[in-house]
Write a structure and sequence with these properties.
By secondary structure, this protein is of the alpha/beta class. Helices cover 34% and strands 16% of the residues. It is built from three helices and five strands, in the order αβββαβαβ. The longest helix has 18 residues. It is rod-shaped and about 110 Å long.
Length: 135
């Protein structure tokens, strides 16, 4: 009878420390570079435009689907809207107003919001749109 000696099998271990470091670095990178924009306020379905650029302004008017105009979360109308905007624009460095209108809002309501902003002294008026989904 022959006795066969077997060698002990070598222990192979994968160094997981470097892999875990890379995974955490990727996680931190994606958390820092992604933007989680949560719009607060009214439920609006914005019109889509491909040619839009990002603009920020301290004053935003919102026009709902039924034509109601909101400023700072409160429903407003013509003359009082002009006075509210005039008060806020007088102390603002940049005389810019953004209008966030639902895509089904009546054109007359959007025009009256633009008119109120212009009467209050706004130099720039921009409409907020969203980019269409990519195919």
């Amino acid at each position: 009878m022959r006795i066969i000696k077997t060698r002990p099998s070598p222990k192979v271990s994968l160094p997981l420390t470097a892999l875990i470091d890379i995974v955490f670095l990727l996680l931190v990178y994606f958390l820092l570079t992604s933007s989680f924009v949560q719009r607060e306020g009214l439920e609006l379905e914005l019109p889509r435009a491909v040619s839009g650029t990002a603009v920020r302004a301290p004053l935003t008017l919102q026009v709902k689907r039924n034509g109601e105009i909101f400023f700072e979360g409160q429903k407003t109308r013509g003359p009082e809207l002009v006075e509210l905007l005039r008060g806020r624009l007088s102390s603002a460095e940049e005389k810019r107003v953004l209008i966030e209108a639902d895509r089904r809002a009546p054109l007359s309501a959007v025009v009256s919001a633009m008119d109120a902003a212009r009467l209050a002294g706004a130099k720039n008026i921009s409409l907020i749109t969203e980019k269409p989904p990519r195919p």
